[in-house]
Amino acid sequence: MYAYMTHLLRSCPNTSLEFRTGSSYGFSVFSKRSNLIKSKEFSRRNFVVQSCSTLPAGEVGLVENETTQIGTNVKVDLATQFGWKVRRLAPIGDEIREAAQLQALSFYEPTFIFNDFFFELFKAEVLAGLLYKLRNSPQDRYACLVAEAELTGDDEKASSSDSKQGLVGVVDVTVLRDQNVLNHLPPDSQEYLYISGIAVLESFRRRKIATVLLKACDIVSNLWGFKYLVLRAYEDDYGARELYSNAGYKVVSVDPPWQTSWVGRKRRVLMVKHNNLTP
């Protein structure tokens, strides 16, 4: 969860959001049992959740304008393999909420007390961050990619039960220019594609969904013209590191001990992939 919040704050330097009630997008920031907190900061476990104002049974939606319309090609499949397909997230309330829910379930760390309350806060922050990025990012600078079952009659492909599940995986793709990362890239590199927030529903893991998500990231890198893809993984998460290595990522650096151990953070590795795709 800490890793997700770190990326969220990096991707959204300005966390103030504009909400409208009664939107056609139709989703709530908090569940009915936890619609409290008004413009306060709540800190827990080394991260800060900045809550939004109380909404009395109201709903919030994505506030769009002419320059921030999202994803006109959401129906185009970026990658299709192993019975799964990956596309851009559709700017629809239910789907945005579903993607945020999926990431929240994957990155939330349960607590001994008030677990439901803390989870609702964390889910609300994930949803708010996703809304902010969708509303404020150009279409060639940020994309939320989602995986779902491929609709086909082939028995070797997804089953009918899979096709009814909806979203089974999600990943964020963001153009960044962190100098600490650029130091590990060729001198002429000015920006790179940062892969983060990759999540797969627990009941669908080990079914190659993450592999297809990473393949779609390669396609986005090619479409946007970026040679290098970058991601981070925990040093002791050997399963994730093997997944990334198999996808072509190589470790280029490790968090220094002074930056991790004394503040209770897990050590991470920085992994880079050179995209060899051609148009």
Features:
279 residues; alpha+beta; two-stranded antiparallel ribbon; 22% strand; globular
Quick structural overview:
The protein has 279 residues and is α+β, with helices and mostly antiparallel strands.
Number of strands: 10
The coarse overall form would be globular
Largest sheet: 8 strands, mixed
Calculate Rg over CA atoms. Answer: 19 Å
Q: Are there runs of 5+ residues with pLDDT below 50, and where?
A: 5-72
Number of helices: 8
How far apart, in Å, are the first and last alpha carbons?
36 Å
Kindly state the percentage of residues in helix: 25-40%
> How do the strands line up in the largest sheet?
3-4-5-6-7-8-10-9
- Give the amount of beta strand, in percent: 15-25%
| Average of per-residue pLDDT values | 76
Q: Which structural class fits the helix and strand makeup? A: alpha+beta
- How do the helices and strands follow one another from N- to C-terminus? HEEEEHHEHEHEHEHEHE
